[in-house]
Amino acid sequence: MLKLIKNTYLTNRFFWSFGGLVLLFSLSFAFPFLFPVAQTLLVLGIIMTLLDVSLLFNKKVQVQCERKLPKLLSLGDPNKIILEITNPSNLSLKTTIIEELPIQFQKRDFEIEQVLTGGAEETIQYDLTPTVRGEYEFGYTNIFLETLLGLVQRKIKSSEKTTIPVYPSIIQMREMQLKALSNLSYQEGIKKVRRLGHSYEFEQIKNYVRGDDYRSINWKASSRKGSLMVNQYEDERAQQVYSIIDKSRNMKMPFNGMSLMDYAVNTSLAISNIILRKHDRAGLITFSDKIGTVIKADKKPTQLNKILSALYNEKSGQLESDYELLYYASRKLINRRSLLLLYTNFESRFSLERVLPILRRISKFHLLVVVIFENTEIKSFVEKEVSDTEGIYFQTVARKFLNEKEQMVQMLKQYGIQSILTKPEDLSVNTINKYLVLKSRGLI
User: Fold this and answer.
1) How many whole angstroms separate alpha carbon 360 and alpha carbon 351?
2) d(CA 94, CA 240)
3) Helix (H/G/I), strand (E/B), else coil: 170
4) 31 vs 44, 45, 387, CA distance in Å?
5) Which of 20, 47, 87, 105 could be joined to 116 by an S-S link, Cβ 3.0–4.6 Å?
6) Which domains does the chain have, with CATH numbers?
7) Paired residues of 167 in beta bridges
8) Nearest Cα residue to 333 out of 244, 271, 438, 273
9) Cβ-proximal residues to 250 (8 Å cutoff; 6+ apart), any chain
């Protein structure tokens, strides 16, 4: 009996119905002929409510729900969550499903309404996009059942509590792999780049096409074939590529719910996968006021999992970055010339000028690529139409800020340092394109 009372809820229809009866009884003081009508309706309402309770709590009404989760969730991507609901009874039921979502989503009004016919099996799907790495705990799935009468609800608690980790985006990593390694040149995002330099590993002889290096023409094969033939070479392999992530407070700036550091984390995983697929060596270094994770560049089968686990556990710091420490770490930990992809954030020209001498020292020993993030919110503000003096003033300041970003790129280029100026959401595509371009030119 106690369980029945605990799992029984009165609906809005119940309160509206009996509220109307109270009003009818009140009116019967002024109009006595309404009193028997109100009494009849009251008895009918009680009978209907008891009937509704008996239907809902019938032993044959055993609605079951199973929540199917992936082994892990991908950071910043829509992840599919599936609910499989079964109604073995012959009774048609209206269901309201309230999921106890992880606290990180801060969703207090999440509910799904579904009508279950007798003997039906329904599959419900919804998407969740986590914006923070870590462990997410799903609570129970609460199902509220109603009959066609709709006066009472029965609550059923289903699906046990489950904890699931949110890792750097596996979905994005696979998408980038498909685009970068596919032979289809028309896919959006990843560019197909013609190799401009020479490597040393011979692959095959092929027909000459416009743009091929004329120094690669094989004259003997051309004379036999009667048309120009060129030697084709494989890209050099086993080059070292390090993803270096700045974990200082300037990487905590949020865009679309995710911090710049999390964008860098997702990109580091995607580019590491491409590097290993291209038979190069992938490594990882994180730093802020001190050196964090160090994974030496390698191409072992376990390297990607090692990088994935390290990225999952990374946390941003509260202090400024120590670039002097990064320089000494690069000299001590990286034993030969490598490609260094530095994910950091400079919000002013002055902040870049402070560390530029150190970046120049690093670039003497390695091929350094500095990632600079565009502030998309400021850019969208600049593109808005304004009509008052205050708006014009703010837009002028915003344009000056955007111009500073362009000046930073030119400043780095002036000193022979490669750079990427990108929106946070385009970071993975632009970084992979940069790697492919540098590799095609034989710079690494």
Assistant:
1) 15
2) 60
3) helix
4) 21, 21, 65
5) 87
6) 1-167 (2.60.40.10), 170-190+237-440 (3.40.50.410), 201-234 (no CATH)
7) 74
8) 244
9) 260, 320, 321, 344, 345, 346, 347, 351
Closest listed residue to residue 237, CA positions, set 267, 199, 270: 199
What single-letter DSSP state applies at residue 217? B
The answer to whether 294 touches 328, Cβ cutoff 8 Å, is no
Taking the C-alpha atoms of residue 245 and residue 284, their distance in angstroms, rounded to an integer, is 8
The string of DSSP letters for 257-288 reads TEEHHHHHHHHHHHHHHHHHHTT-EEEEEEES
Helices (H), 296-426: 303-313, 323-333, 349-365, 376-382, 389-414
Which element (helix H / strand E) includes 285? Answer: strand 281-287
State which amino acid sits at residue 128.
Answer: L
pTM listed for this prediction: 0.80
In sequence order, what are the beta bridge partners of 418?
A: 369
Angle between helix 427-440 and helix 260-277 axes, rounded to 10 deg: 40
Q: Tokens 């590799």 map to which residue?
A: 439
Q: Rounded distance, CA 44 to CA 116, Å?
A: 27
Name the 3-class secondary structure at 115.
strand
Question: With the C-alpha atoms ordered 349, 355, 360, 364, is the resulting torsion angle positive or negative?
Answer: negative
Token pair 């109009």 is at which residue?
31
**143-188 tens-digit pLDDT:** 999 998 989 999 988 878 899 999 999 999 988 888 776 643 334 4
The pair of structure tokens assigned to 109 is 């009004």
pLDDT single digits (tens) 190-227: 554 554 444 445 557 878 887 777 777 888 888 888 88
